[in-house]
Write a structure and sequence with these properties.
The complex is a heterotrimer of chains A (289), B (332) and C (274). Chain A has one domain: MetI-like (MetI-like fold, Orthogonal Bundle), CATH 1.10.3720.10. Chain A has 13 helices and two strands. In chain A, helix 2 packs across helix 13, helix 3 runs parallel beside helix 8 and helix 3 runs antiparallel to helix 10. Chain A has a two-stranded antiparallel ribbon. Chain A has 289 residues and is mainly α. Chain A is globular. Chain B is an alpha+beta fold. Chain B has two domains: 228 residues, P-loop containing nucleotide triphosphate hydrolases (Rossmann fold, 3-Layer(aba) Sandwich), CATH 3.40.50.300; 89 residues, OB fold (Dihydrolipoamide Acetyltransferase, E2P) (Beta Barrel), CATH 2.40.50. Chain B has a six-stranded mixed sheet with strand order 6-7-8-3-9-10, with helices on both faces. A five-stranded antiparallel sheet of chain B has the order 13-17-14-15-16, with no helix packed on it. In chain B, strands 2-1-4-5 form a four-stranded antiparallel sheet, with helices on one face. The model of chain B has no long low-confidence stretch (mean pLDDT 89). Chain C is mainly α and 274 residues long. Chain C is 74% helix and 0% strand. Chain C is built from 13 helices and no strands. The chains are: A mainly alpha (289), B alpha+beta (332), C mainly alpha (274). Chains A and C meet through helix 1, helix 3, helix 4, helix 5 and helix 6 of A and helix 1, helix 4, helix 5, helix 6 and helix 7 of C.
């Protein structure tokens, strides 16, 4: 099959995709790296100068930077905790014999297809609004004072919204993994006298471990970049209470027009994402052969 | 039509030499079986003949024409693959007609040939189904149908029965043999199963590590194996080999006796031993015997032979049924 | 695994599962209900039964020219996906059917480009778009989304193509098919399902993309995600109208999503979970 002719044809077929992605990766990243060493503000053009490590230092000494890193971590870990635990529970439930399984599945995965700005607006106005939201209605019903979610618990509110969006993803993948569990294996364990709980911890959980890893890693990649949900709800506030790294960089670039500073932040974001990416690539790479 | 000649055909994948050099003559209308353990190069040899792999060195001739560099399509051969390789998106009819369509045969003639092939293979009722809706045996027949409509100069079979269950395998074996009788076209059949080889072949080619160990009719190989490998490979259960004193007495490094070639007795004989497992099948009795100071062997008695685990038995090889091998495993 | 369970157990599981499912689906359901209310109803407390008016839908169109961002979304999502397929099909094909020692590395590298955080290249992309006049154009955004999703498209296609057994291609060659006939009669029909699911998933991803659409458009080329995001404060758009706009923005993709559950798992995990 692998004659010389098909080899060169194959090279020609691969080339466009590879070249495009190579440009897409190298050019902007190179520019970001270059800008990160410049004093460059769009509001004061003509004063661009070499900044050395200043932008990094500036970012590093800004208290908002640490707050945003902390918020990023809390956001990612909070959402992961909710979606993975919730995903396992819901996947186990849906996998049981139930009436209308197909419809239940469809209902459960639906939030994933809701675009982030819409998801955030629905939660902001329909559910969490302090006067007209459903939560407020419930609070009033019980005679309690409604909570102003985005003012009082801004980060938690965003975690809830994002978790709602990603819970279907975790559920669907864990369910897929669950359904590939060998029924005879489970029956063998039952014959061996394993309790339901023991079957779960010794069979089901190890069987799903790979899927759980994949869920955690892929979600982490996306969760590091949460943006639209913050934009339409809290705008990062109050203060920096719900600003994550992505939003901080967006603010520097688009609201303060600080190109150099935003670029330095971007490089830091790349380093963070790469740490996660390395683990993801290993997990995925194993499945290649 | 259908004679195939291989002249010092060599095949290497990079550094690895899979077939160091094979010469073989396949006559018109013959049913030839390539048999050997997995990794012996039998499939590669078939694919070289098919043109699916390029020959590293040597020549392949079909009907006297050198086809070494011809594309598979130009060689006029048809192949049945191990996985059947049916086109899943086409009906059975279209699957069978595909090679005819490629040959730009007119629609009416195509349909006639498909009907004819379907008739031979009992597929007439299934022509409008997709391969996914068929059983394993039916898929196998479709694959064969696709091969026969082309009226090729030879059929190539690459372990076609290995995906079928045991009962079906026996049926298909008979069907393929009958097909060969009917069409009288050359067939080359690759298998690792010596029973298939023995039952179907006019000529068996035993391969090991890319080399031909022996070529001959089934009974020739059974009666006079050229070496210990062929002796051990052909026949079931396997030939027993006994080395040491007994062999030396007969002037050989090792002697080989087939399980069915022992006289068995509970009182006396040349070799004594203890019965391990006794398998009573009614028609035959297979005994697994630990020879005194010797190897573990299997012996077959016809009909019923009333011994059990732990009993003493005595074996005497039948006259003229003892194969003697030298130090290098060659027959003496 | 057809395990017999008692009817009562099954009913118990059913109630629990439906409760959870409806809870998760509730925000969407409530948005649909609100979109059918009048503005007055929408802000007068919890109520699951609307007056079934389509007034809000009409208002969204007449006041905000909703059809424009909708068409932008369609053009950008479909356009970027088709562009990506044009580049990716030959690449995935070559990698699946005539792999080299480096194929695996190339695939992993492609995946790694997907992991670059968008915000890291916000500055240069923003500046490039400003200076080349691509800002707020459909073509600029289409190319952008094509590049973002290209790695996923290549990967998905690759995993699908790899499942086409090599023996079938050999069978076609034995049957006398030329390379062209092999592609037309055998490969393409077998590859179409994989290409279709890749198409579906990537339209969904492109439709819902929100970072770049918000950064790189203002009014002209703004697709739904950017359009909706501009209503982050509900002064202009009231509850019922916001709901109507939301329902229209998510309905097409929600329905497509329901049909592509399986492919979703495969595509988003790069074939790591099937």
């Amino acid at each position: 099959m692998a004659t010389r002719q098909t080899q060169s044809l194959a090279r020609l077929m691969r080339a466009p995709a590879i070249i495009l992605l190579l440009i897409w990766m190298l050019v902007p990243l190179g520019m970001t790296l270059y800008y990160s060493f410049l004093n460059y503000n769009l509001l004061s053009p003509g004063t661009t100068s070499w900044a050395g490590w200043f932008n990094y230092q500036y970012f590093y000494t800004d208290p908002a930077f640490f707050q945003s890193i902390w918020n990023t971590l809390v956001l990612v870990l909070g959402v992961l905790l909710i979606t993975v635990c919730g995903g396992i529970a819901i996947a186990l439930l849906i996998d049981k014999p139930i009436f209308g399984q197909g419809i239940v599945r469809i209902l459960v995965i639906s939030p994933f297809f809701v675009m982030p700005p819409v998801a955030a607006l629905i939660w902001k106005n329909m559910i969490m609004h302090p006067s007209y939201g459903v939560f407020a209605d419930i609070a009033k019903f019980f005679g309690a004072t409604p909570v102003d979610w985005f003012a009082q618990y801004p980060l938690l509110s965003i975690i809830l919204i994002v978790a709602w969006q990603w819970l279907p993803f975790a559920t669907l993948i864990l369910l897929t993994a669950l359904q590939s569990l060998d029924g005879e294996q489970v029956e063998a364990a039952e014959m061996d006298g394993a309790s339901a709980f023991a079957r779960f911890t010794h069979l089901t959980l190890p069987h799903m471990s790979r899927a759980i890893t994949v869920v955690i890693l892929i979600q982490t990649i996306f969760l590091l970049g949460v943006y639209a949900e913050i934009l339409v709800t809290t705008n990062g506030g109050p203060g920096y209470a719900s600003t994550n790294l992505t939003y901080l960089i967006y603010r520097a670039a688009r609201l303060n027009f600080d190109i150099g500073g935003a670029a330095a932040g971007g490089i830091i974001a790349v380093i963070l994402a790469n740490i996660v990416a390395i683990f993801l690539m290993r997990a995925v790479g194993k499945n290649l052969d | 039509m259908g004679s195939i000649t291989l002249k010092s055909v060599r095949k290497a994948f990079g550094e690895v030499e899979v077939i160091p050099g094979v010469d073989l003559e396949i006559n018109e209308g013959e049913f030839v079986v390539f048999v050997g353990p997995s990794g012996c190069g039998k499939s590669t040899l078939l694919r070289l003949i098919a043109g699916l792999e390029d020959v590293t060195d040597g020549q392949i001739m079909i009907d006297g024409k050198n086809v070494t560099d011809a594309s598979p399509a130009k060689r006029g051969l048809a192949m049945v693959f191990q996985s059947y390789a049916l086109y899943p998106h086409m009906s059975v009819r279209k699957n069978i007609a595909f090679p005819l369509k490629m040959a730009k045969m007119p629609e009416a003639e195509r349909e006639k040939r498909v009907q004819h092939a379907a008739g031979i293979l009992n597929l007439t009722d299934y022509l409008d189904r997709r391969p996914g809706q068929l059983s394993g045996g039916q898929r196998q027949r479709v694959a064969i149908g696709r091969a026969i409509v082309r009226e090729p100069s030879a059929f190539l079979f690459d372990e076609p029965l290995s995906n079928l269950d045991a009962a079906l395998r026996v049926n298909m074996r008979v069907e393929i043999s009958e097909l060969h009788k009917k069409l009288a076209t050359t067939m080359i059949y690759v298998t690792h199963d010596q029973v298939e080889a023995m039952t179907m072949a006019d000529k068996i080619v035993v391969l090991r590590a890319g080399r031909i160990e022996q070529v001959g009719s089934p009974l020739e190989l059974y009666r006079s194996p050229a070496n210990r490998f062929v002796g051990g490979f052909i026949g079931s259960p396997n030939m027993n080999f006994i080395e040491g004193e007994v062999a030396a007495k007969m002037g050989a490094h090792a002697i080989g006796v087939r399980p069915e070639h022992f006289h068995m007795s509970t009182s006396d004989g040349l070799l004594g031993g203890t019965v391990g497992v006794a398998e009573h099948l009614g028609s035959d009795t297979f005994l697994h015997i630990d020879l005194d100071n010797g190897p573990h062997i299997i012996a077959r008695a016809e009909g019923e032979f009333p011994v059990h685990h732990g009993d003493r038995v005595y074996l005497t090889p039948q006259e003229g049924r003892v194969y003697r091998f030298d130090q290098n495993g060659l027959a003496i | 695994m057809a395990r017999a369970v008692s009817r009562n157990t099954k009913i118990g599981y059913t109630i629990a599962a439906w409760f959870v499912a409806l809870l998760i689906f509730f925000p969407i359901l409530y948005t649909i209900i609100t979109s059918l209310k009048t503005e007055q109803e929408a802000i007068s407390g919890f109520n699951l039964i609307p007056s079934f008016t389509l007034q809000s839908y009409e208002d969204v169109q007449s006041q905000y020219n909703y059809i424009r961002p909708f068409m932008n979304s369609v053009i950008i999502a479909v356009g970027s996906t088709i562009l990506a397929l044009i580049v990716a099909i030959p690449a995935a094909w070559a990698m699946a059917f005539s792999p080299t020692k480096r194929t695996k590395d190339i695939l992993m590298w492609m995946l790694s480009t997907k992991m670059m955080p968008a915000v890291a290249v916000l500055v240069p992309i923003y500046l490039i778009f400003l200076r080349t006049g691509l800002m707020d154009t459909r073509i600029g955004l289409t190319v952008m989304l094509m590049l973002i999703n290209l790695p996923i498209v290549v990967w998905m296609l690759y995993t699908y193509f790899r499942e086409i057994p090599g023996e079938i291609l050999e069978a076609a060659r034995m049957d006398g098919a030329t390379l062209g006939q092999e592609i037309v009669y055998v490969l393409t029909p077998m590859a179409v399902p994989g290409i279709a699911s890749t198409l579906l998933l990537n339209i969904i991803l492109a439709w819902n993309e929100s970072f770049w659409t918000i950064q790189l458009t203002t009014t002209n080329a703004a697709p739904l995600s950017a359009f909706i995001a501009s209503f982050s404060s509900p002064q202009g758009l009231f509850w019922a109208k916001l709901s109507a706009a939301s329902v229209m923005a998510i309905a097409p993709i929600l329905i497509m999503g329901w049909f592509s559950q399986k492919q979703l798992v495969r595509g988003l995990t790069f074939g790591a979970v099937k």
